[in-house]
Amino acid sequence: MLLEVIATCIEDAVTAEQGGADRIELITAIGEGGLTPGIGMVKQVVRSIRIPVHVMVRPHSRSFVYSQPDQEVMAEEIKAIRQAGAAGIVIGALTPAGRIDRAALERWLPLAEGMNVTFHRAFDELADLTGGLAELKAYPQINRVLTSGGVMPAPQAIPVIADLVRLSRQPDASLAQESPAGSGQEGQTQTRQERPVILAGHGLTIEGIADFVQAAGVAEVHFGTSVRRDGDGLKEIDPERLRKLVKRLKG
């Protein structure tokens, strides 16, 4: 099992690493679902920890439909994040019709060469999740999809997530690749049987995680609020809650 934990500052990132997280997603504005952190923060976090740092690229929380100026901003952010040495980026974009914005992806992905790429929960706003996953399979550089199986919390969408996991693991030799390391950061490998990896998040709890993992069949989970002090997204990561989660995930 791999555990990704949201970090909003250097202290979060260090606590997450010390508590047993395998990777962090670095964001700001957790109350808005996560926006792009400042590049100074990115540089300092990458220097402060050894586990992979994946950085959110999202300029605003109005929607996942991005104008051309928005896309230009995001392109510049991707270039800066790559130069800062992060292992990956977290992106997503939809068309006004609610489909995956393939033109935006094709603009951004070459800028993230050598990095891990997660397509974030914009995925959950698609009308057809299995069709969306098939579309994302056309981009070997996208090696993760963060999803709760739709707009509901993940524990309420276990059959959908389990189906996405099954589809992601269908063998396809043409999609085999290794997820390379970002500059100075360890990468993580996917096989031809599983790409993109389904990263389950949103609404997961420490108490219910073991049953969820068994039922959904996921190999990676994503936690934010549940590992924070008093379960409050605006408070710091609680080392004890994180240790309890790691123990339940990994024994």
UniProtKB/TrEMBL annotation:
**Pfam families under this entry?**
CutC
Can the keyword Cytoplasm be found in this entry's annotation? yes
* Gene3D superfamilies given in the database record: Copper homeostasis (CutC) domain
Q: What is its main location?
A: cytoplasm
Region: Disordered; residue ranges are: 172-193
Alphabetically list the UniProt keywords: Cytoplasm
List where in the cell it is found.
Cytoplasm
Composition bias, kind Polar residues: at what positions?
176-191
Family of the protein in this entry:
Belongs to the CutC family.
The cross-references to PANTHER family, in alphabetical order and at most eight, read: COPPER HOMEOSTASIS PROTEIN CUTC, COPPER HOMEOSTASIS PROTEIN CUTC HOMOLOG
Q: What is this protein called?
A: PF03932 family protein CutC
> Can you name the source organism?
Paenibacillus physcomitrellae
Q: Which gene encodes it?
A: cutC
